Amino acid sequence: MNTEQLMADGEYLCAGLFEEPERSLFYRKSLGIRRFLENSPLPEYDKTKRLYPSGKQGAFPYSYTNLLWGQENRIKDKDTAKKYREDFLQGYVIGIPVEHRVAGLMWVHSMPYYERILREGFLSYIPRIEKIADTDMREGLLHLVEGLRVYSERCVRYLRDEGAPEELVSALEKIPMRPAENIFDAIEGWNFIMYLDCCDNLGCLADGLLPYYKGEDVVPLIGELYDNLDINEGYSMSLGLNGYHPMVYQCLKALAGKRRPMTELFVGKDTPDDIWELAFETIRNGGGQPAFYNKIDLPRILMDRLPSITKEDMKRFCGGGCTESMIAGMSNVGSIDAGLNLPLLLEKTICSSLPGAKDFEEFYRAFIDLVRETALIVTRDVSASQLRRAEVLPVPLRTLLIDDCIDNGVEYYRGGARYKWSIINFAGNINVVDSMLTIKDMIFDRKVITPEEMISKLRNNDKEFLAECRKEPLCFGTCDSEVNKFAHRLTNDIYSTLDDLKPAIGEAFIPASIQFESHAKAGRDVGATPDGREAYSPLCDSLGAIFGKDRSGPTALLGSVTSLALDKLCGTPVLNFNLTSKFNDATLKALILGYMEMGGIQMQVSCVSRETLLDAMEHPELHRNLIVRVGGYSEYFNRLTDDMKRMIIDRSIQEV
């Protein structure tokens, strides 16, 4: 390989990759990233901004999944580009049935240990790196640190030449190689490090900035950081687990009108009134920001499932990506590794087992057995993919940025991070609850239809029959005691299929219900279902009631949600809750706290009127900045598919 020609062509990373081809891939990638940092064009300085880099052009061209993703757009032939992508994925994704990739396929969101980097600087990492026994890992990480040193010095020279303000130049003379000294250093450092990690997540921003805060108003600066995350399609941050100090207020104020970061505000009885007021004011602006998290029960259920997490580290919780549970700066979490399509499994069980079932219990067991069998297949494939990825896909930057890879002397994907687990998504939970209730009522209790007749009507997408199904009196969302008891049993049995399974790399498989925008696509694989859902239409988008069945009001709806086996869903259970913008603050606060006292874990509140949504559907050009909350994340309404838009419009809107 002619590395000089590659350098001349501007393929700096590739040149470094082949500079010493006999070395390990970890070393070669590290050297490649160093060459990139030493030679690549610097992000253009935007003189209207206080932070650097800024905008989309500043993001490093490494996917958050593997940090060395090819640029398909540079391959002129589209068929070749498609084959390249498929071949690349097949290099480490083994198995995992296509239909059970709902909201995830070996995805790994994460966030750097921002606080440690700001506190110590990368130069202080060198003595720890030098203790690593593995020669290629040690020398590779030293290349990486040297590349970062050169890169930061190049940035300083460039900014001086551009006449950048002294506070920005001074900050980059320190961070990320040396400790931050003041609040501007810290925010600029957070921004700079965020770009190194592909603008994935912000982690525990408020807590990390607090040591540098001296009472300054940094709301505009934090807002600029948010904008940089947003334009690069970044994700989340958490607030409130370490109390409601001044930086929490600053971060909340900066959130007004922002799509990202998706903000996880931990609340409880001790949450100050002015925090609630700030949160509700932001929500009224639309976009579902912030979402509310149970500060007592979420840490408890996660630590029960994952005993390795210490109480101190639990304070660093941040849902990465949409809201996948992890510990900021210390985690390697499959987020999300795979997603089981529950209505598809129910459809298969209806066809195979319903006609011969002597009673509902026999049919029910057949369904749970199929879920268990599928979970075993999917988790086996996830483990195989983990091992393959550890072999072929080292990630030097994540190894540098995440504790305890250096101290353990182990690469990130090989298990170097302090905490490791795999999140498995479960899609269509409420579709299955209501479908099961309909089957029990129509076929086994009232006997108004035979199994064969129901199967025929479902196959034919019989709309009259489906409308009848939607009117079933026993349904999820009304807080009926019989329904709640069944919903708990069903979801507990489903999520328990992961209890005794363990990934090849990690402590446990943990369940979640985070639909992202995948529930529409997942529904295209599934015919009509007995809950009244039409063939190939979207699955439910959260753990709330469907098809307007929450007709008994918000308290009953939340009572139904807490009947689910939420203590199993420690990967995070997402609930969409939709209100008019005229909601009463005191009533909503009481509703949220009551929900959490009953065991509710997460609630994301939206208050965009149906009239506004319909007008945005008809006149998108008038609503370019309209933000809505989807299945665990915020998105511009105009970016959604028509199916997704219609589903959001059809959500029940509560009065409180």
Protein architecture, described:
Strands 1-2-3-8-7 form a 5-stranded mixed beta sheet. The protein has a 3-stranded parallel beta sheet with strand order 4-5-6. Strands 9-10 form a two-stranded antiparallel ribbon. It is globular. The longest helix has 33 residues. It is of the alpha/beta class and 656 residues long. It contains 28 helices and 10 strands. It folds into 2 domains: 164 residues, no CATH class; 319 residues, Anaerobic Ribonucleotide-triphosphate Reductase Large Chain, CATH 3.20.70. α8 packs across α9, α9 packs parallel to α11 and α16 packs across α17.
Task: Tally the structural domains.
Answer: 2
Total helical segments: 28
The major β-sheet equals: 5 strands, mixed
- CATH topology category name of the largest domain: Anaerobic Ribonucleotide-triphosphate Reductase Large Chain
For the record, give the distance between the C-alpha atoms at the N and C termini, rounded to a whole number.
67 Å
Hey, roughly how much beta strand do the residues contain?
Answer: 5-15%
User: How many extended strands?
Assistant: 10
What kind of oligomer do you see? single chain
Helix proportion of residues, in percent? 40-55%
Q: Quickly name the level 1 CATH class of the largest domain.
A: Alpha Beta
Q: Provide the structure class.
A: alpha/beta
Strand order of the largest sheet: 1-2-3-8-7
Q: Give the overall pLDDT as a whole number.
A: 91
CA-based shape: globular
Q: What is the C-alpha radius of gyration, as a whole number of Å?
A: 25 Å
Low-confidence stretches: none
Architecture (CATH level 2) name of the largest domain: Alpha-Beta Barrel
